[in-house]
Amino acid sequence: MEPASRLDHNGQLALQEFPYVIQWREDRCTRCGRCTAVCPQQAIEPAVFAQRLVHSESGTPMPSTVRKVSHGIRQVNDIDRYCTGCGMCSLVCPNVAIVPHYNPHHKFLFHKNLGGTPYKRGGRRNDPSPSTLDKLKFTRISMLTDPALDAGRHEFHIRTLLGRIPPPEKLPLKVTDNRLIVEDDHFIPPVREIFPIRIGSMSIGALSPHMWEGLAMGITYLNEVEGIPVVMCSGEGGMPPRLLRSRFLKYFIPQIASGYFGWDEIIHALPDMVEDPCAIEIKYGQGAKPGDGGLLMSYKVLKLIAGIRGVPMHIDLASPPTHQTKYSIEEAVAKMIQSMSMAWGFRVPVYPKISGTKTAQAVLNNLARNPYAAALCIDGEDGGTGAAYNVSMDKMGHPIASNIRDCYLDLVKQGRQNELPLIAAGGMGKTGNLAANAAAMIMLGASAVDIGKYIMQTAAGCLGDEYNRCNLCNTGKCPRGITTQNPKLYRRLDPDKVAERVVEVFKSAEIELKKIFAPMGRSTQLPIGMSDGLSVGDKAIAERLEIDYAC
């Protein structure tokens, strides 16, 4: 390959400016063309290399000039076709002749932000450092070595409740003739028993049809065969009409957001629904882009998505601003909870999802006074795979651990810590420790956690990471077929394999959660808010979260 520092003309970028540099080995390459065919960015192309060699032979050689022409692979230095390091070229190469290497000294953002439009990307923030959750340890454990604590032999179930849980004295119940009777004209909030790890909101549009289908099949199998009540949020943009009218709807949480995309289909399906949904989530913010709203870029708005959402094809779908009749989030939340509860006859839990911010407690305190509010979902800064400005991904948002902790302690002061569930999202399993991160969040006060990027990485082999590798989620060029609406790409993904891996992930997580909770003496209920079981070797974190400092 030509030297990376070569400039063909003034102003062209050298390859050292790019985040990933392709290393190609001429001696191994068979020139089969597979790598250039699968590259989602067209960052590599066939090339002709001409070399001028000095050649000499015989005992008294006379040098002569020989011109050698060869064919190979060249990395382009066009900023719009930069290599993202996804490694698809390496996966299809039969001889390991081509490999992208991360360039820690790149100046990508200096050039990608030119042209008047800031850089947008999918994936997580570019921060490979350990999160707060990964630093927490579980230090309150049994003093006895008990074979019954072996994770493979735990017999209890890991469950949590989604829905408002009033104290016993506020329940409109009375005992008559040894029977429990509900008093007339009194409201009992609907509650669902679910697994404490949920699949968070990733829409049809954000995910490919094959990916969404694989997730749906996986959670259905978990519920009906494995007996693990995992639920999945649909994300904004509606749901397949057949699913809305099927008995499997009870495993899903339809989401409504400011765009109302896809809600015509849901409303029209109401009379034909044979099951109520698990819950309704009202999205007001996302952790990866707090305050920005959702954005499905035009590359992904193809025929199927345009039909479900009722919009023209090939246009950007940005969440519209708040309606002028709603002067505050408190009023908006109250109105939406009331209207969505009425739509399902007050049989379905309804709750909002907000971005992690310093003002989360203000929303929480209003929900605590609303008898129809079922929960509060907070999305921390590490969440999100949709389109977001790079500055939002890396410089905006609030860590989820301290946000949930503040909200839980606020409920404790009000004596309502067991009444309104908190759901944590954003960065769960960022380094692969899903069960440990979920357990830590539960012990900090969450009733459940949401996962998104983690399930994409494990169930479908997502190539992205925190070094800005791949991160093409927003462009519709996903080389794995996970976040694209292009049939040529998503046909690479087998939905049956995705479903199989989803089942494996949750079964493994359940065993690990039992292994963590049982030695703490919690084999009958989740240790929500049991912070005395946590310790950390960082004094600042210990003081901020009000947990033990241990080193």
Strand and helix map with partners:
Blueprint: E1 20-24, H1 34-38, E2 44-55, E3 64-75, H2 88-92, E4 98-102, H3 108-112, E5 120-121, H4 132-135, E6 136-138, E7 160-162, E8 173-176, E9 179-182, E10 192-194, E11 197-199, H5 209-226, E12 232-233, H6 241-244, E13 252-253, E14 255-257, H7 263-269, E15 280-283, E16 295-296, H8 303-309, E17 317-318, H9 329-343, E18 350-355, H10 360-368, E19 376-379, E20 388-389, H11 390-395, H12 400-414, E21 422-425, H13 434-444, E22 448-451, H14 453-460, H15 487-490, H16 495-517, E23 534-536, H17 539-545, E24 548-549
Parallel strand pairs: 11-22, 12-13, 14-15, 15-18, 18-19, 19-21, 21-22, 23-24
Antiparallel strand pairs: 1-4, 2-3, 5-20, 6-23, 7-10, 8-9, 16-17
What can you see in these coordinates?
The chain has 17 helices and 24 strands. With 551 residues, it is an alpha/beta fold. The protein has two domains: 103 residues, Alpha-Beta Plaits (2-Layer Sandwich), CATH 3.30.70; 385 residues, Aldolase class I (TIM Barrel, Alpha-Beta Barrel). α17 links the parallel β23 and β24. α5 packs across α16 and α10 packs parallel to α12. The longest helix has 23 residues. The chain starts with 19 loop residues before the first strand and ends with a strand.
